[in-house]
Structure formats: structure tokens, C-alpha cells
Amino acid sequence: MGPVKTRNFLILIHLYLAAFLAPTFLLVAITGALDHADIKPETTQIPISLPPEVDLNPKDPDLEATLRRLFAATDLDVDFEYVRARPDRITTVPTTRPFVRFLNTDTGWEGTLNVPSLHYALMELHKGHGPAWFNIYQLIAGVALFLVILGGLIVGLMAKAYRRKTVTASLIGSGIFVSLAFLV
């Protein structure tokens, strides 16, 4: 394959991958900008009445099964894939749809059903707290993003008319990144 055909092939791959990643780019751009603008996402919190005998143990290897039994006994319809447990907090995941959070307080465990807003759900996807299949998609998108960037640089370097512009833009972008991230 000659240089022109190689460049055209890379442009086509670059185009397909960029189009494939467009929703992910928008998700990261929107949620990142809102976070930096200090616009916080919200959930509607509904208190859960726990039976008095409930004593949750974050270190319990059967915690997930315990929570499923508790939800069934209290007619709480929460679909979760796994549990994130810390000594003072237990959260069902994914947190992109209604989830339950238990907090260990001085008076015992208190629970809330949390219904996320769209903004909250998108931020949780951004953080990787979504469904397992979406997390796999995010890994694939990360590899594809690397290929889009690498492919774009290669295409820019292959075309003599764009070589200097590509190198200049890359050096300026890298300089700004390093300066703002590590030197300022």
C-alpha cells in the first residue's frame, strides 16, 4: 500500500473511531465542564425504614445476598450488580439508576433510596460507576481514543502540507499540558 492509500485508510479509520466515540466525548466534555464549573449533580433521597434487627457488616462476604434478602423483605425494588462497602458506608452499584446507600451513624445503620438526576447519572458514568457492560464499553472507548489520537498524529505527519502544523500544535499542546499540570 502506497503512502497516499495508507493515509486515506488511516483517515477513514480515524473518522470511524471518532464517530464511534462521539457520545463518549460529549459525556466527558459535558460532565467535566459542569464539575469544573462547580455545578453539582443531585439525587432525590428517600429514607428507608430498616427493621431494628438489621446489623450490616461491610466485611461480610455474603453482604450482597444479605442486601438482596433485606430488599425483598422490605419490598424495595432495587436492581444492583454489586456492592461497594466501606466501614461507614455501603452503596449498591450501579449508581446511574436508583440505588441504596447505607450510612453507619452513632445510632446504627440508616438507609436511603437515591434516585439520580440525569446529570448525576451521567457523572457516575464518567466516573466508571455505571453498569458492568458500560464499563467494558469505556475500556474499549479508551483504546479507541488512543488510536484516534495516534492516527490523527500519524496522518498529520504523513502529509507534507500538514507536518509542520501537526508538530507545532503537538508541541504547544504538550507544553501547555505539562506547564499547567506540573509546573504552575
What's the quick description here?
The protein is about 60% helix and about 15% strand.
Write the layout of secondary structure elements.
Blueprint: H1 3-36, E1 43-48, H2 63-73, E2 82-86, E3 89-93, E4 99-105, E5 108-116, H3 118-127, H4 132-158, H5 160-183
Antiparallel strand pairs: 1-5, 2-3, 3-4, 4-5
Helix pairs in contact: 1-3, 1-4, 4-5
Task: Please provide a written account of the structure.
With 184 residues, the protein is α+β, with helices and mostly antiparallel strands. It contains five helices and five strands; from the N terminus they run αβαββββααα. A five-stranded antiparallel β-sheet has the order 1-5-4-3-2. It is elongated. The two termini are 46 Å apart.
Based on the model shown, name its key terms.
elongated, 184 residues, alpha+beta
